[in-house]
Amino acid sequence: MPDSTISPPACSAFDPTNPPNYGYSPSLAAGIVFVVFFGTITTTHLALTIISRRWWQILFVLGGIGELLGWIGRTWASQCVYSDLAFEIQISCLIFSPAFFAAGIYIILGYFIRIFGPGTSPLTAKQYLWIFCSIDSATLTLQAIGGGLASAAGSKPDGNIKPGTNTMIVGIVFQLAANIVFACLFARVVYKTYRQGKGILNVDNLPLPSRPQPATTTRRLRILAAATTLSTLALIARGVYRSVELIQGWRGYLITTERYFIGLDGALMVVALLVFVIANPHYLLPHKADCAESSLEAGDAKEKSFEGRNGSETE
Asked: Which of 26, 77, 94, 153 is the most exposed place for a label (fewest CB within 10 A)?
């Protein structure tokens, strides 16, 4: 994709005078390490999703599968460095996968809004999900179109990859901007809960059986808020790296230096996914059964209050 030169056979030995699409030969060791990381983390997320039956967490599984396939492609490329198929697998999977992580985070924010009340957010939970998922879909479509145009142009001797590359840049920059806006809105929700003295600081209004011990609930929600913040920051940092990388071009310094890719893409995506294994929403968010129990308790309290008033009137 980077240029229109004719590549040697896919599994030829790396030739520095005729660099492959990456500009280097991908590390086999790094490929194996990340395949093991993403394979293990994704399997754990799948198990947690099945156990919890919070099926929206399948988004983390789908994102993990994408990262896993992308790193399998890079591992393959370490042995067949001129393989166009291996390159296309890794670049497409690793571009699309973080969108699934982001969608999971949007849902977590929706839970926070439902717990703390609509007054903490300018948008409803559904509006966040629809708006930001639509933006992600649009930006990923732009990146896919740009990648296709650049790939098609790169396969021609006199092809011009600049239009396709510019389209990809527009897509990834807009995606980064959307992530930053979302992060600001999430920060606003957390800030409002502190300022209003409700939610994270005062959980007496939460429908949990642990209500007599608000410190426990407070600690859990703070952990989830911190985990969500960390994952969001990892996505933003990765977006900054990817944006600058593409702006520099296919033969730029960042894109042709593997250590930056390992540290600012692979490692950050491990953090973004692993943090929700350690701080899994199933164990930190209120459960439906808990809400039902609280509703029954509230109903009993109202009934007793009503009976008390009637008794007073009779007397």
From this structure: 153
Q: What one-character-per-residue DSSP string does 203-215 give? A: -TTS--TTTT-HH
Q: Which residues are within 8 A (CB) of 191 and not within 5 positions of it... i.e. 6 or more apart? A: none
Q: Is the pLDDT confidence value at 6 over 90?
A: no
pLDDT band at 10 (very low <50, low <70, confident <90, very high): confident
Enumerate residues 6+ apart whose C-beta is below 8 A from 220.
Answer: 283, 284
pLDDT score for 46: 97
Give the Cα separation of 101 and 218 in Å (integer): 25
36/42 Cα distance (integer angstroms): 10
Return the H-helix or E-strand segment holding 137. helix 125-154
Residues 273, 41 contacting (CB under 8 angstroms): yes
Residue type at 147?
Answer: G
The model's pTM: 0.82
Helices (H), 155-263: 162-195, 214-248, 258-261
